[in-house]
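Severity: low
Component: inverse-folding endpoint
Summary: output formatting inconsistent between runs
Steps to reproduce: submit the following structure tokens with default settings.
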């Protein structure tokens, strides 16, 4: 399946927790999520882990300070592309298009020549996200230099690392428990 901004359906390979048979702990953990999708209902098998995942994700993606929200979505999209997570790319590229109000930019990013027309800041973020995802121990000071040259502060760089690290874990979890398919497919 190709990268897209279309809404996809995630089909689990592990039976999701059903509301009718959920324990009070599972119901509470699911209540902390924005919507109890099949993915979250699979993760609800271990309520404490789902709660931790929700709080970590929200703390990294929605906090004030650090990278602007659009740059977080750009990093999430680039990391997810590198990891081959079609579902996460569809979600975060769609959010990126909404935040930037530039669906053409996003289509180019996830298309045949990913990121061909990026400005210096976006290029530095995408290149760093891809490099950190592909080989964390290979990044080092040389990998951070283009971020500094593009004007990112220490707080923004640290935030970028958190986003990319989060998606290294999240993509692997999602791809190991199910797969995306087109809606109605």
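Observed output (run 2 of 3):
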């Amino acid at each position: 399946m190709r990268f897209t901004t279309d809404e996809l359906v995630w089909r689990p390979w592990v039976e999701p927790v059903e509301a009718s048979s959920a324990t009070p702990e599972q119901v509470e953990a699911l209540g902390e999520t924005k919507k109890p999708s099949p993915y979250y209902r699979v993760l609800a098998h271990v309520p404490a882990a789902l709660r931790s995942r929700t709080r970590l994700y929200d703390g990294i993606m929605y906090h004030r300070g650090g990278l602007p929200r659009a740059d977080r979505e750009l990093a999430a999209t680039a990391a997810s592309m590198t990891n081959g997570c079609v579902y996460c790319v569809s979600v975060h590229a769609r959010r990126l298009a909404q935040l930037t109000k530039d669906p053409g930019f996003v289509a180019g990013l996830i298309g045949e020549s990913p990121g061909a027309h990026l400005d210096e800041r976006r290029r530095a973020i995408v290149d760093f996200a891809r490099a950190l995802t592909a080989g964390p121990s290979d990044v080092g000071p040389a990998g951070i230099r283009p971020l500094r040259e593009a004007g990112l502060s220490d707080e923004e760089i640290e935030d970028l690392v958190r986003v990319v690290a989060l998606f290294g874990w999240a993509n692997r979890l999602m791809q190991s428990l199910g797969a995306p398919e087109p809606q109605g497919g």
